[in-house]
Every structure is written in C-alpha cells, then in structure tokens.
Write the structure tokens for this entry.
Amino acid sequence: MNATIPAEPTDRTDAPLLEMRGITKRFAGVVANDGVDFDVQAGEVHSLFGENGAGKSTLMRVLYGFHRPDAGEIRMHGSPVTIGSPADAIRHGIGMIHQHFMLVNTLSVADNVALGLPSSRGPLTDPGRVSERIRELSETYHLRVDPNAVVWQLSVGERQRVEILKALYRNVALLILDEPTAVLTPQEVDDLIAVLRQMAQDGKGLVFISHKVREVLGLSTRITVLRHGHRVGTLPASAATRDILVEMMVGHALAPERAAVATGEALSDAAIVGLTPAAGQAPPAPAVATTPPRLVVRDLTVPGDRGTDAVRGLGLEVRGGEIVGIAGVSGNGQRELAEAISGVRRSTSGSIVLDGTELTGANPARARAVGLGYVPEERTRDGVVADFSVAENLLLVDSTAPAFSRLGFLRGREIRRHCQSLVEAFDIRTPSLDTPTRTLSGGNIQKLIMARELSREPRVLLVAQPTRGIDVAAARYIHERLREQRARGTAVLIVSEDLDEVMSLADRILVMYEGSVIGEARPDASTRAEIGLMMAGIRPDAANAAAAARATT
Amino acid sequence: MSQFFTQAILTATVASGIALATPFLLASLGETIGQRSGVINLGLDGIMLLSAFTSYYVALNTGNLGLAVLSGVGVGFLMGIATAFISVTLKAEQGISGIGVYLFGLGLSDLLFVKLVGTPLPIASLPAFRIPVLADIPILGPMLFQQTLLVYFAFLLVPVVTFILDRTTYGMKIKAAGENPAAADSLGVSVARIRWSAVLIGCSMAGLAGTSLLLYDGIFQQNLTQSEGFIAVALVYFGAWTAVGVMGGSLLYGLVAAVVLAWKALGIIPLSASDLAATAPAVLTVLALLWVGRRFRQPAVLGKPYERGE
C-alpha cells in the first residue's frame, strides 16, 4: 500500500545503517557542530548526550535535512547520500520526532499520519485503510490512539504516540527522537522506552537525544557525548556509568585538555579575582551572614507555557553582598523563576519579598520601583527594543523620571549627557548614541542592558544567562561588573546554564531540577561532577545535604 | 409595502439575490482555499477589476462571451502568479502587498478602460439557461433554475471545494500548510508548492468572479466592483473558512442587496435615502461577522510566510 517503503538494511551487512563523518555546521559564526562523527547500526539505540547547546539537535537536524552542513559526509548503508530537505531524509528511510510536536491540530490522527504520503485511492484520502493500519501498528507496539480523533483533543502523551505512529507507518529504518521525554509523565516515559526497545529489536536504528542520565543509561546500546559542538567520546552503555557520563557532559575528568579549553575563561576570571581585593574568591562568609536576606522566595509555584507547573514550591534567599548562582539543565524552571521574580510571569502560589516589600503578583514596573534590576535571558527580545537607538534603550524605563522629562517633553540634552556617560562608563562599543541597537554585537547589547539596570542602583540584581552567546572579552567585563555589585552590597542572583560561569562567579550555587532546588553547593567545596550529578536529578547524599543545611542557617 | 409581497416580485427578488450573490461566492470560495493554505489575498478586488475589464474588452471586440469568460479567468491566473510570487516566494507582508495589488488593479483597469474603450457600450449579457423540467416548477423554478450558467457553476463549486478540502490528499496538504507548515515540511510536503497552487486557484476564481459581475451588469465602468472583493474576503471569515459557510454569507449579502434594489424600484425607499440603503448589505454583513466571527478559529498561520527551521 505504501510506495515509498524504504529498503530494510539488508544490502550490506558490514556497513552501518548510518555514518556521519566530520559534520560541521556554523550559524552566523557560531560553530554548532565541529567535525562530529556519528554512526548508528541497525537494531541499536544510540544516544546523543550532552548539555543544551552542545549541538545534539543541530547534528540531527542536519541529518533530517532541516540544515545543510558546512562540511562533512553522510552515508546510509555505506553509500554517500545528500540530504537537502526532509523529503530527502524520508526517502532514505529516516524519521524524526521533534522536540515540539509536528502535528496539525485540526486534522484527525489518520490524516496526520498519512499526510504527504500517496494514498491508495489516488487523489482521495483513504481514512478507512489508514485507520486500519494504525490500529494494527497500535496493537503491535501497544500505542493506544483513536485514529479518528482530532489531534487537538488528544493529551500530550497521545500526541507523542501519534508522532511515533507516523514514523512506524512510514516504516522508517532510522528514527531520531529529539528530547522525546521532556513533556511526558514518568509513566509515559516508561511506556515510550518499552516501545523504543521493541523498535530496536525489530531491526530499526534509533537515535535518542537526551540530557537525562537515567533514561540514556536505561535505553541505550551506545552513547555519544557532545560538548560545545565537539564529540567528547562514544562508549557502549555497558561501560558507562552516571559519573562517567556527567563528567563527559560537563567536560571534567575524561577530557582534561578539552576541559581546560572550555574553562579557560573561568580560570582567567579566577586570576582577576585574585588581583581584586574587593572580590575575593572565598567570600567573606561572616559579613554575608550578618546581613539580612534582601530577596526571599518562599514556596513559589509558577506555571509554564504548557500549562504544567514549571516552578514547584521553590524557596531561596539572597543576601546583600553575595552572588547566588542558579545552575541546572535548561528547561527545569529557571526561565519561569526569573520571569516570576521580575514580574513578567504570574505565580500561582508562594511569595516573593524584596527587602521586606511583598512583590508577589507585582508587575515589572513595581518590581523595578522597589529596587529590582533585571537582565532577561532573551536579551534582544525582552531586554531592549531592538529597533530603538542606543540612547532610547538606555533611557527606556526612565523616560518619565523628572531628570529626563518635563511636562511630558523629553529633555534631550540631559538625556544625551546621561547616555553618553553610561556608554563611556560601561564601554559600550557603538558608533553613536543614535545607532539602532539591533546592529550592536550581543556583548555590547548586554553591556547596554547592564548599564541601564545598574544606573538605577538596584538593591537586588537578577541576571539570566549573563554571558550566553557573548564574546570572551565582553563576558569577562560583565563578570567584573557583577562582582563589583556584590562588593557594593547588592544581592545578586544569576541564572546560568553554563556551569563554569556559575562556579567562577557565585558564592553559593543552587541547583534547579524539575522546578525546585534539588541541592546547594559551594564552588570551593564541591566538584563540578558533584554539581553535574545534581543537575541530572540525583540528590546530594545525606552528608552533603546536612552541610548545605548548615550553610544556609 | 404590500406591492412587494406579491408572488412575482418576491420570486424575482430571490432570483436576482442569487445572481447578485454569485460573484461573491466565486471570489470567496477561491479565497477560502488560499486562506486555508495560510495566504490572505487582499488584492482580490483589484484582480476582479482587471478580469472584469479584460472580459469586457474581449466581449466588446469579439462578441464571444465564452472567450470573455476564459480571458477573465486567464487574467486572474496571471495575477495569481504575481500574488504567489510576492506572498509565498518573496515572503512579503501580505496585508501590505495585497493593498498594492488592489491599487494596481484598480488603476490599471481604469486606465485601460479610458485608453482602449473611451465611450462605454453595453455588451450582450449572458443568457439565462432554463434547466429542463426543474425550471417549470412553480415559484422554485423561476427562483433557482432560470439562471445563467455561471450561477449554476458557482453553486456547484460549493460541494466541490468542500470535497477537495475534506476528502483529498491535496486538501489535507492545504490545511496542513495553513495550520502547521513545519509539520507539513517535516513530512516532505512542499509548503511553497501547496501555497502557490492554492493562490493560483483562488486568484483564477477571483478572475471569474470579476467576469461574472461584468456579465451581470452588462457594461464596464470605473471601479465596477465597488470594493466587493474586500467583502468577499470578509465573507471567508463569516463562513468560518468552509465552502458552505461562505455560500451562506454570499446569499445573505446578495438577497439583502436584491431586496434593497426591489424596494428602491417600488418606491418603498425614498430616492433621498437610496444611497444610505445601498450600504445595508455591507452593514448587515459586518454585524453578522461580529456575531459569528469569534466562534471559529482562523488557520493558525494565516498571513505568515513559512521559514524552515525558525
């Protein structure tokens, strides 16, 4: 019935199902994949493991024809293939389940499954026959879905099953799953893993992209770890342990030379710290302990975009004169936490208090008024108005302040003087005050936002992803400024997915996992591997927990 | 008022309402297909004008109404190529480019009319086609079955468009392109190709709509459509992006327009108020749109160009 059934991998048993050699992919100068090798045998689950931004999804989107690689070769069954579009990938028997569902919500399950395939009835759809085949596949793989249901009626778990059915229906030889468990409940994850095992037994090759150690260890035949776009190594699952994988992910023990490169910036930062007396590497703990907490978050619950709670009963405190870093793998509620504190996102329960002032449910203007400085994660989208000039963005939130406006008219000369001094003080590299902000580099936009926020002399400073995507020099400058704020007695809270950054900056590290703080660490007392374990969802042992408890009280 | 409620007048009013609804129906059916694929075409009225003029010019010079119809559709198709190129290939902002196409059609049809025709002469109108047997049914016959071939064709397209959208693989691809183009793309469906074809169909039908309007009036004049193409776009919303809904909206508009015409002719509406009364169909449509509009969801990516890997 299906004219495009790809050949089963029987032509050459010695050649692997898939070989990718030296895949390099750059985006606007950023190298997402750097000469990555990857292969998959028929009948195995080969996991791609690594932090967010390590290049896992990019590698697979290259394979599926969404991106064209800048260099490298792809072979299927030993012969080179060119994959310029998803249509090519499908022709070669490749299927992909994307991080976000690729379903047409207004069509039925059967229509979604059959979309793009020739129908047995020529130009007419054949929902009866498609449904029948879906039922057979559902039976074989225990994937309960009503073929006649319309997709918008389905639960998240059911939609996931439809995605798998789409691949099974096309009889793919190789199936890529990009973070397929991210939106599933634990029970649904177990069901999914059972289906994937069965598909592997049936001779299909599977690529499983994940940053969750437990799932990777439980499912894989082999595991390849990526870090910063490089392949760190490939090992059989039988030889892998939690510790080994986490170390490879965060770049510690197994690849010391690479880790040195990756943490080079952090090391030089440490050197700067050593030269700056105001910001000693070991924080003056007693001084911090005596100041009352400036930011107190209690039992905070914040809904995410998908309707489930992204932050679940989280509590934290930040004192004046300390930097608290929130570490964790992306998507564990960090973004929602930052948005709730800044007033952009509503919390459903719990409280946020800044210097004794209740901020729960406040809007961003009020949060600013009581002394919060906020540097958002998506700096060009949420931090500046990209089409406004540098001066306009520097002024943005203060346009009604008496110093800059009189009777509703802006005071041009005062504004320019103020902006000029900020541009100089913060070393913002811009041709002029009137340059559109979107033309500046990421580092200079971040400096602009920092200049605006710090000029308001905040009592609490919240910075999300302080240096993500920023060049080394600008990143170092921003780190210096953050330490300077600490020295001035500001309570600084940073959220970062870059563990190196958190370890070099923070006095205390809180690790977020699935919406709450799973553990606390001190950069001088904990290893990267210990923190990495917490990031993967493994609670610190009782001794560590006790130490952390002593440290906070 | 009593002179309106006679069998002859009522029958004639309904019959003319159906005829008046036909250009709207053709244009909005085509626009339904285009919008389902994710492309909104605000240049519809301009395309109708260009096609109407072309048909007029061909009819005037050849006297061949069949050729006039074909040339009207052909001009619609050509304008479809321009529209699809701008909206799909160049990924322009569709609201703005649509207004541009409209102004182009409005201006060019007027210019050509003045330069090529000068003194307007009426052309032969499309003859009514009596459907054997059915046309002789009392009341219903004169209302429904003594219309022109274009009217029958337009109403026949309603089940055809419904069938295409709901029962064919092409229809599924159109809906997927308008709801989740990334999903269609990930399954190897070319979103650009689907949208191109939907726009070409929609614009060809807009061309036919312009021609049918001309053949109803029998003569061309500046701004013949009087912005009816924009009403046709609104009717797509009114009809909740379904062929049957669009037909309902077109009939409502046509019938109200016919009643206004009849009342004017009978003197029920005084001459002084006739301009005001002429706005009744549009006002009614807008009111109905407000009432109906929010109940249905438009295609999820209507008006948004598709970019792979956004």
Q: What stands out?
A: Residues 186-201 of chain A form the longest helix (16 residues). The mean pLDDT of chain A is 84. The interface with chain B takes residues 61, 64, 66-67, 85-87, 89-91, 96, 98, 101-107, 111-112, 114-119, 123-125, 166 of chain A (CB under 8 Å).
